[in-house]
Design a protein that fits this description.
alpha+beta; Cyt_P450_E_grp-I_CYP2D-like; about 500 residues; signal; globular; monooxygenase; five-stranded mixed beta sheet; 16 helices; single chain; 11 strands; about 50% helix
């Protein structure tokens, strides 16, 4: 009995301390819903659609508020003004990567996506330099994309207009383009290792976007019990093994005077800094950097494209208008190129609207402040997680009337010319903006125009019965799986 009383007193003290501590922190941080001990605000959020929950909280607490995912406070920035003020006007202060336990475990503060401090700055700067040297954003990489698209078109023709799931095929182009940059090689679409690599990326996106992973990141102790995170760790281990095998092959054939790809450049940098014990250029960092580039360069583009085709199946009149523009500007005798984009405002608007509408990464990846700061009338301590609610920018109803409607007119002026928008932030913004943004933009335009130049998209059901609601909406917004027929034109 005495032991029971002691336990009750200890538990009561713990709860009171948590409440006091939360209240103390809340006094300095922006306002927000009152957190419960241990669990924070998790029970007040819909883990199947965090983005929608955040929008509702913003109505109650304003564009800058605090939510607790577990015991740690996270400052949420909602709406264009708050996001721009943080990421663009005060980019350096908000350039940290926030704490996401699952990715911290996978990356160990290496690579260019989930790292912080010197290792992030040096790796990102080096990677951007190498990618530019290899033609990123230039004609060199455009030629490579066009070549890969030609393989895709031939493969789609071989379906003989039969129903097919486009998931794997749409991944082949961006994945092979990244392979050419990293490994200086491409894979046949039927290559088993290649298809397995792509399968892992699909599975990983589904897992990290699941409600379970939202809970895992709030309560890392869940690592020790069964769950889909086990599958994620297994998949990533296999991907790293694949990457390491390629790196070892490069080590054996390396010509320091003639680097052929990203791995060669990195290995040469490692050799130059081998006597520097503080060097960020290590084998572990190389493997994670490549893994980052694969994930960012393959799954995001292919998922955007897969969602885009589903939207065009739902809206055949929009697909038909794109095809009319293709016939007028490009014709059927040559492949689309990036110079065509400036003369194809409607197609350009469709590509932008696909990215805006699908809202692929609704809350971006967590940021963190790199020092104690005063933001508006609030004090935010160094290291505090910052959640950038990109949905609130991409679906702003003043900038995009009827934002829940798929409408290319959101990016067209009254004369039908393409209209830029500062609110278009699918790649985020500021210091942590996606390294591969220029590549992704190029791929999306060229893949879409090439497919519609060669095929008419035919759904298996009536367009009005097509459901475009994502099947999961967590870290990523994943479209439902579907089949369609590619009818040659």
């Amino acid at each position: 009995m005495d032991l029971f009383i002691v336990l009750v007193i200890c538990l009561s003290c713990l709860i009171l301390f948590s409440l006091w501590n939360g209240s103390y922190a809340k006094g300095k941080l922006p306002p927000g819903p009152t957190p419960l001990p241990i669990v924070g605000n998790i029970l007040q959020l819909n883990t199947k659609n965090i983005s929608k929950s955040l929008s509702m909280l913003a109505k109650a607490y304003g564009p800058v508020f605090t939510a607790y995912f577990g015991r740690k406070p996270t400052v949420v920035l909602h709406g264009y003004k708050a996001v721009k003020e943080a990421l663009i006007d005060r980019g350096e202060e908000f350039s940290g990567r926030g704490s996401l336990p699952v990715f911290e475990e996978l990356s160990q503060n290496s690579g260019i996506v989930f790292s912080n401090g010197k290792i992030w700055k040096h790796t990102r700067r080096f990677s951007l330099m190498v990618l530019r040297n290899m033609g990123m954003g230039k004609k060199t990489i455009e030629d490579r994309i066009q070549e890969e698209i030609s393989y895709l078109v031939e493969t789609l023709k071989k379906t003989n207009a039969s129903p097919c799931d486009p998931t794997s095929l749409l991944s082949c182009v961006p994945c092979n383009v990244i392979c050419s940059v990293i490994f200086h090689t491409r894979f046949d679409y039927n290559d088993l290792k290649f298809q397995t690599l792509i399968k892992y990326f699909h599975e990983n996106l589904m897992i990290v976007s699941s409600p379970w992973m939202q809970l895992y990141n709030a309560f890392p102790f869940l690592h020790y019990i069964p769950g889909c995170h086990k599958k994620l760790f297994k998949n990533v281990a296999c991907q790293k093994e694949f990457i390491l095998e390629k790196v070892k092959q490069h080590q054996e054939l390396l010509d320091i005077n003639n680097p052929q790809d990203f791995i060669d450049y990195f290995l040469i940098k490692m050799e130059k800094e081998k006597h520097n014990k503080q060097s960020e250029f290590t084998m572990d960092n190389l493997v994670i950097t490549i893994w980052d580039m694969f994930g960012a360069g393959t799954e995001t583009t292919s998922t955007t494209m897969r969602y885009g085709l589903l939207l065009l199946l739902k809206h055949p009149e929009i697909a038909a208008k794109v095809q009319q523009e293709i016939d007028r500007v490009i014709g059927r005798q040559r492949s689309p190129c990036m110079q065509d984009r400036s003369r194809m405002p409607y197609t350009d608007a469709v590509v932008h609207e696909i990215q805006r509408y699908i809202d692929l990464v609704p809350t971006s990846l967590l940021h963190a402040v790199t020092e104690d700061i005063q933001f508006r009338e609030y004090f935010i301590p160094k290291g505090t997680n910052i959640l950038i609610h990109l949905s609130s920018v991409l679906h702003d109803d003043k900038e995009f009337p009827n934002p829940e409607q798929f409408d290319p007119g959101h990016f067209l002026d009254e004369s039908g010319h393409f209209k830029k928008s500062d609110y278009f932030m699918p790649f985020s913004a500021g210091k942590r903006v996606c390294v591969g943004e220029s590549l992704a933009r190029m791929e999306l335009f060229l893949i879409l125009t090439s497919i519609l130049q060669n095929f008419t998209l035919k759904p298996l059901v009536d367009p009005k019965d097509i459901d475009t609601t994502p099947i999961v909406n967590g870290l990523g917004s994943v479209p439902p799986f579907y089949e369609l027929c590619f009818i040659p034109v």
